[in-house]
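Why does this matter for the project? Reviewers at the last site visit asked to see concrete outputs rather than summary tables. In response, this paragraph embeds two records directly. Each consists of the residue sequence and, immediately after it, the corresponding structure tokens. Nothing has been edited or filtered.
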Amino acid sequence: MNDLAAAPVRVDGYAELRDYAAIGDGRSVALVARDGSVDWLAWPDLDSPSLFAAVLDPARGGCFLLRPDVPYTAARRYLPGTNVLETTFTTAGGTVRVTDALTLPDAASLPPGRELVRRIEGLAGSVPMGWSVRPRFAYGARTPRPARRAGVPVASCGPDAVAVCAWDAGQPQCTAGSVTARFRADAGTRALIAVPYAHQEPLVLPARDECEARLDRTAAAWRRWADDRTCAGPWREAVLRSALALKLLVFAPSGAVAAAATCSLPEGLGGVRNWDYRFSWIRDSVFTLNAFLELGCAPEATGYLWWLMHASQLTRPRLHVLYRLDGGARAPERILPLSGHRGSAPVRVGNAAAGQLQLDTYGELMQTAWLYTAAGNRLDADIARRLAGTADFVCTVWREPDAGIWEVRSAPEHFTQSKMMCWVALDRALDLAGRRLIPGRHAARWRRERQAVADFTDTRCFSPRLNSYVRSAGSEDLDAGLLLGLLHGYRPPGDPRMRGTVDAVQRTLREGPYVNRYLGHDGLPGSEGAFLACSFWLAEALARCGRVEEAARLMDRLVALANDVGLYSEEIDPATGAFLGNLPQGLSHLALISAARAIGEAAR
């Protein structure tokens, strides 16, 4: 990955979203800016209230600053095959390296419930360093007053407590709401700062050698996981980094996969399109399971499918758009009193889309189960009955208008991609029943309704003038989600209507390597950036249509859009290249993995 040195820049206290790297431990994810500040961390879990949220409000959000006290440039990388971050600061007087990780628990010692470890090594000369830990519990709403336990600064708030353990990193000073220190990193020296955390449990104050060992074992554990991945082809490094980014979003206690690690990072600077993505969307399930299977992640694939079936059991036969990482269905949306990233308010947690009707989810759930069986896995009897019940429900609900895959907040419409996925749901149910994997008592009805869906879609949702499927019945607008009709098998790649749709999306929604989701009204003011997953979907669609060289050229351009450590946000501003939306964004990385595989297969 690109690790070119640069002097980090902040605007009104905010780092550029492109300047963030992510570290995690299977339970939460932290964002580390290029200038060494940890500006986002929700503890104890990824979807918990934040401890650090300076990415949303530098004044009130809290952070962990660590950087030289003199002008510097910064270059960084992940240690190969890991989610352990290494940042090298270079100053006129010397060079220092910082290694950051959320450590993985081990059996070698009694570890804290959660732990952030930062190792500082002097490489050359002498560099004056400064650091400041500013915890702000409950999304910045509560500023703790630090105390000391056994000489260690500790901040607590209700059932939560966090300590700041420092070795050879200066003498920590406790002030109102922060712990700070200064020291010199001379060549050959090593300092360590650990931030252990406890939630409704005793706070463990670790020893230095335990922290050092856990940091090294964490890097080794990530390398072992990465070494087992099956990645090949010209974009192998991008695929492996995407796999590691996806693994960050796997919530280990349940097997759920979060859409992103953050909340309310804006889709347009200064705008209101700011959403909490720390939930698991059924929309992403097909790409998620497919990626796990392609990468050789059998435990993750099985865990994710079982979580998906458990979560959807709670609301059957109707599916929710998204579920909490623990499988719960409630996600009430509320607004926080934070300024928002670069003034982009409101800052929301929770997501009201949970209560929408999105018909595409039924197709994605059935396609996910179908892919699971295609890989040689079996379904137990209860899941088989529920999938058959899902097909029955699609027969009754497909005629309703819905909010569509993009969760618009305008009036429901008959979105074309939703109808296509209802067809996919019934088609996959018929295949599963034909292989005696689910009960097929109602197969005749599924077959009739599948044809009815196709008749509706092919007559009311296709424009002869555009030679393309359109965004919704009776419209002349385009939607990049239509590409999923090809990718998920509504029509084969050779179908003239699908080929026409690919061409129309290119003509209408593409700007250079960027593809917009749609250009029509969606019930919200303002605009958004180009949606990265749609760009990768286009590359995959081109490959499946036999346009392999064109697909590969687009793929090369898209891979180059990653930040210096290989991560993607949800969207990019085509005019400036700035990252927009939450990050790291699972769907962006999933779409990259899928496109790379499809182009490779088409080339062979």
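We now turn to the second protein, recorded in exactly the same manner.
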Amino acid sequence: MIRHRPHGSGHAYEPTDDQIVPATPLAGEAFDVRASTGPDITAVVCEWATGGTVTFLTAAVEADEAPAGDSGGDNDSHLAAAASGVGRGGRRRWVVRPQPLAEGASARYRFTATHADGRTRSTRWYTVAPATWHDGADALTVSGPATRLVPGTARTLRAADGTPLRVRFALRLAEGEHVVGFGERYNAVDQRGVALDSQVFEQYKGQGFTTRTYLPMPFALVIGGDGWGFHVRTSRRTWYDIGATDTDLMWIEAEVGADGALDTHCYRGTPADVLGAFLDEAGRPEELPEWVFGLWASGNEWNTQARVMAEMDRHRDTDIPVRALVIEAWSDEATFTAFRDAQYEVNEDGSAHRLADFTFPADGAWPDPKAMVDELHARGIKVLLWQIPLMKMRPNPSGQAAADAKAMIDNGYGVQEEGGKRPYRNRGWWFPLSLMPDLTKPEAREWWLSKRRYLVDEVGIDGFKTDGGEHAWGADLRYADGTSGDVTNNLFPVEYPRAYGELLRESGKAPVTFSRAGFTGSQNAGAFWAGDEDSTWDAYRHSVNAGITASACGIVYWGWDLAGFSGDVPDAELYVRATEFSTFVPVMQYHSEYNHHRLPLRDRTPWNIADRSGDPAVLDSFRRYAKLRERLIPYLAEETKAGLAENKPLMRGLFFDHTDDPKIWDHQDHFRLGSALLVAPVTEPGATRRTVYLPVGTDWVDAWTGETVAGGQEILREAPLGTIPVFVTAERWPTLKPLFSELI
């Protein structure tokens, strides 16, 4: 078999073995044309026809590159194995390099493969024609009170037939301006001097060493000078060169539709003014219940009722308060709607079940899910269940999973590919070839949610961990609302948690979802965590950046997997430092990756880290901070409400409150938590002190010593393990002192 897809799989960053590279070559630009075969093919020839001349180009076999998604580092996990491309089946990549095509030229081509026994097989004919950049962009608008468009910089990339493909232009950057935003970014807080893009992507681990992200947005604050910001009003892919090439220019490039239209709006004002204007367009965050601010507990191997209750008992017995439990491995791993080991009759039409339809064996994994949830509720613990927006198709589904897949295909409930000719099969590395529900189709949305409704209405769960969301790849995808993949793929992870939020709301519950992926509009789609990461100091530092940048775009309820969730367990120092930091972010939660139930355990529970590290002080430190977190809950709820009214997120970089203080940019890992607290996390191993900058405009009180320090100065703060530098505005100290007094 030989395969060629001119645009490949739609992977945002890595070309596949069967595409043109680049997928849309420019006039005069060199390019490759690739085909993929099995190992039994001995020769491949490309028949290349251009300008009335036919040439036979012999393809060369090229060695495999590192598979897309390979994170490096620890790969001893099921996710790492999937991300590394295991199971490619020994396929080979064949490459030809034709002469570059001139503007206005085109070529027709096909590949012919020769099998070891002499048989041949050819692809169909394809056409390639180069695109060309042209001066001007007639349908570009850059509007608003702070327009910085540089005259003469607008250009349009046009296909050979004249259809617009992209628009490019530049905005002026003044000296001393700092650019923060573009969604959740791990590499840095200030993006000036960086080139990046805005495309939803599942970067499994190592995010901070790239500019890739689960949660991008085509929006940024520009701080300093007059104060402004901008929003590229599109869900298509965009690119930004923020002074990386030209120090005083921000180059913006965006995919466009056939009309070439692109609107970028520029706002003027303080960061809060700019964010508020953006939220008027994107949607405003919704206040969630206070329990969200308590400790969340999770472990991927907590896959039985007995194990879950044992871990919750351990919290009780060690006097560590917990407010929310996330159960990941609860389902049958096929339908993701039925508890593992549950017995029930298959609904052949794919319709929903009720709780009464299930029998739960006494010796099964979940002998009584409702009783479990009721008991947890009696203890003050809320319960969230894990979800994935995919219908698994490998291995071949059976039972209810097969009936659901058939219903999905027969009713057209899935996203389509190849112009709507067939159901889309996930092209990503996680759950490959799965079907994906089309949430733009009301009937599909209702069907998908109806199968989960009993979990909320009858079992009584309180929310969903809406994992994934990054699985829509390719401009060729088609959605029921008439849009194509280039428009709607980035919006899928917005609608996915929103849909589950609707289900919760319809059942009288708050729309608490917990996602890692999103885009513009995710501000009012529940809570978020920073995604999959190893337990390393680098990942910790990058997560601090992620929290500050996500908040700058209006994400209020944000957290991370405390000290990382993957690889070997963190040492005592990293775990305690991560606990200190996590106490002062909006969502405090720990989680651990599946480890095939091997010993020793890789749980990120404080008792397991204490056991594994041999340091019992870990448990004491965690308990102290978990209790502090409990005392902080009323403050966090009050400050969230006030921040929503003032367009200031709960966790926010110092630039929100100290815009005119230039020294804050030397301390970009500092942040405010509400209006009264300043936090400076310790992110270097072995450190027992750190430099802290206290901005001008107020006096500050050291939360641990009660010492008053004047603002506008840099101090060296002692920070032994177990102590994170936290300062309180002097005017709020009298009321907040009791929260910290038990730790002094």
